[in-house]
């Protein structure tokens, strides 16, 4: 049962490819693998800490103010992440820009707080957060891999022969993001359908 909580966010209930939460920052920051990895780690840390804390205070939080309480909790951890990234990786902080502070209102974080952490114990909530965080990070990295490779001809900033000679710049722009996003969702559904027929 606990293993299900950990793995469901990676494939079965992936927050990007299945539930389609957090699509705005996903498309905005997935133009490079560095940005995708940085955002994925930031969201995962926030998810784990906020899920754990919300689970611990779930029985003493009045129902009428639970959403504002959740937002304050999430905002606290997002501020910590934002300051940490700004201090230790100024280039990444500048690249991610406003999307780090906007984690506070990210649908994935608030959704897991409301749908899971406020109804389950600390261990289950942390496992859920880890699974959702890994799923979110993997989705970002999948998108970023194709967008950076095709749009800039690089991976993690390193030039890749053949691709680097004539990159398709549209892939690092919004239309390219939507194309890759749609194709990856289609691929996931195809693989699931193929697995179901077996």
Which structural traits does this protein have?
198 residues; two-stranded antiparallel ribbon; mainly alpha
Topology overview:
Elements: H1 2-7, H2 23-29, H3 33-57, H4 66-88, H5 90-96, H6 107-117, H7 122-152, E1 154-155, E2 158-159, H8 174-197
Helix pairs in contact: 3-4, 3-6, 3-7, 4-5, 4-6, 6-7, 7-8
Q: Mind explaining what this structure looks like?
A:
This protein is 68% helix and 2% strand. The protein has a two-stranded antiparallel sheet with strand order 1-2. Helix 4 (66-88) crosses helix 6 (107-117) and helix 6 runs antiparallel to helix 7. The mean pLDDT is 91. It has one domain. The chain has helices at 2-7, 23-29, 33-57, 66-88, 90-96, 107-117, 122-152, 174-197, and strands at residues 154-155, 158-159.
End-to-end gap: 24 Å
Total domains: 1
Radius of gyration: 18 Å
Task: Give the % helix.
Answer: 55-70%
As residue ranges, the low-confidence spans are none
Number of extended strands: 2
List the helices and strands in order: HHHHHHHEEH
Please work out how many helical segments DSSP would assign.
8
Q: Brief overview, please?
A:
The protein has 198 residues and is mostly helical. It is built from 8 helices and 2 strands, in the order αααααααββα. Helix 3 runs antiparallel to helix 7 (122-152), helix 4 crosses helix 5 and helix 4 packs across helix 6.
